[in-house]
Amino acid sequence: MRLREQSILALAGLVLGGLSLAGSPITLREALETARANHPDAEMARARVAEAEARYEAARAANLPQLDGKVSYMQTTSPMQAFGSILNQGTFDNTIDFNDPGQVDGLTAGLEARYRLYSGGVRGARINSARSMQQAGESQLAATESGLEDAVVSAYFGVRQADEIVRSLEAAVKVLEENLRVSRIREESGELIRTERLNLEVELAGRRRELLAHQHQAKLARFQLAFLMGMPPATPVELVDQDPSIEAIDAPPMLSIENRPELQAARSAAEAAAEGVNAAQSERMPTVDAFASWQYDKGWRRDGDGDSWTAGLVMNLPIFDGSSRRSQVAAAKARQRAARENVRKMELNLQIELEEARLGHELALAQKEVALQQLSQAEEAASLSRERFAAGTLLSTELIGVETRLTEARVQLTLATAQERSALAHLRRVAGYPILD
Any idea which of 141-155, 200-214, 342-356 has the lowest mean pLDDT? Predict the structure, then answer.
């Protein structure tokens, strides 16, 4: 992804950030886009990509000729420097005393061009190495964004999960309050002993305490999501009630590690290390440079001027360097071996991660199915038990147990649903696919 596209994403993130600050509910897709644009990890990765691109352009510049200009002015009484200026200005005559030519001034302007005709392969190897490092940086940026998205998904579902638990507990509190109201009526009519009513009051107090704890947990979950989106933790974050992004998470087309940006980054780094070996070995080869220069000289004390040019070729041949280059080659080969082993280690780790993600999603699917059955049974049991309690054929302790199991079933389904969606998103990431297409 080029910097221009990244800038557009950053602008979109700022807009979305403004929406969130205003309290507008966001979707999972918007949370992911905002995190990619705003989070410091993503911005640092983009900066590293920009640095790698600059290094690549610098390496390519070695293929171009170098041109320098210079301008200087001097005055001197040094015989050697003065005599050279006199010759360059074309004002020599036989009356000049070589030992004491007097005070001479001179303005010198010139251009010098250089071009390496043959580098022994060093130049090409360095360009290839820089290009591989640029590709590694781009892959690492993709890996950073992918890991960030995975964390955002977990935080996003953490918020939804916390909200669902709060709603379940609120519903449980309302039911207990209604049951308590019925119990008081029955107690006043003599149909229910005081202990039964007290049991309900104790259970209601416990549920309210549990509700407060989960409301606090929901706030903390929002803080985490705001942080991942690159916003201050206290930023109010609200989620849309019906988020189409959640159902848009599909199973990956193929389970493979070949699309993982981490692996691509490691392979690009290994290619750069191999080119580093080529560059170090090429340092033993001779180099051939072409050069040309033009110079203009002007003096006011002797009122003269002149210009000249120089051109030629030079070859440098390394003969003995005290084994310096041999040591550099050995170091480059060691870095290459380490880079290769890093690729092999990365492949093994990613294979394990992919298999764990696959098994994790299978388990989440099975748990969700069980939770659905459990909730259906708990709802039916609760409905029957409430009727029996109202009719006076069920004790409050028994009703409390039924209502507790219903609340637990709702919470378990909420957890299982969030876990299944989160596990599927994680499976897509470890298979090398974006969480949302």
Answer: 200-214
Identify whether the C-beta of residue 74 lies closer than 8 Å to the C-beta of residue 106. yes
Residue 192 belongs to domain with CATH number:
1.20.1600.10
Phi-psi region of 190 (alpha: psi -120 to 50; beta: other; left: phi over 0): left
- Three-state DSSP at 292 gives strand
Calpha distance 124→128 (Å, rounded): 6
Number of Cβ atoms within 10 Å of the Cβ of 4: 7
Cα-based distances in Å from 142 to 87, 178, 427, 434 = 64, 54, 16, 10
Q: At what angle do helices 261-282 and 324-391 cross, to 10 degrees?
A: 170
What mean pLDDT, rounded, does the chain reach? 88
Structure tokens at 188: 């006043």
Q: How far is CA 44 from CA 82, 268, 311, in A?
A: 57, 19, 47
Query: At 432, phi and psi to the nearest 5?
Result: 90, 20
What whole-number distance in Å separates Cα of residue 131 and Cα of residue 215?
Answer: 51
CA distance readout (Å), 50 to 11, 12, 135, 262, 355: 18, 20, 11, 18, 34
Listed in sequence order, the residues at least 6 apart from 27 whose beta carbon sits closer than 8 Å to its beta carbon are 239, 240, 243, 244, 245
Q: Does residue 117 lie within any of the structural domains?
A: no
Q: What six digits make up the tokens of 289?
A: 């440079």
Beta carbons within 8 Å of 273's beta carbon, 6+ residues apart: 129, 332, 335, 336, 338, 339, 340
Show the domain range for 424: 125-280+325-430
Residue 7 lies in a domain: no
The Cα 436–Cα 31 span in angstroms is 12
Decide if 194 is inside a domain: yes
**3-state class of 104 per DSSP?**
strand
Residues with Cβ within 8 Å of residue 243, at least 6 apart in sequence: 27, 28
Total tally of structural domains belonging to the chain = 1
pLDDT tens, residue by residue, 175-213:
888 878 877 887 777 776 777 778 878 888 988 998 999
| DSSP helix/strand/coil, 77 | coil
* Nearest residue to 404 via CA among 373, 371, 382: 382
| Other residues' Cβ atoms within 10 Å of the Cβ of residue 318 | 13
If pLDDT is split at 50, 70 and 90, which confidence band does 110 have?
very high
Tell me, yes or no, whether 93 lies in a domain.
no
What's the whole-number mean pLDDT along residues 9-28? 57
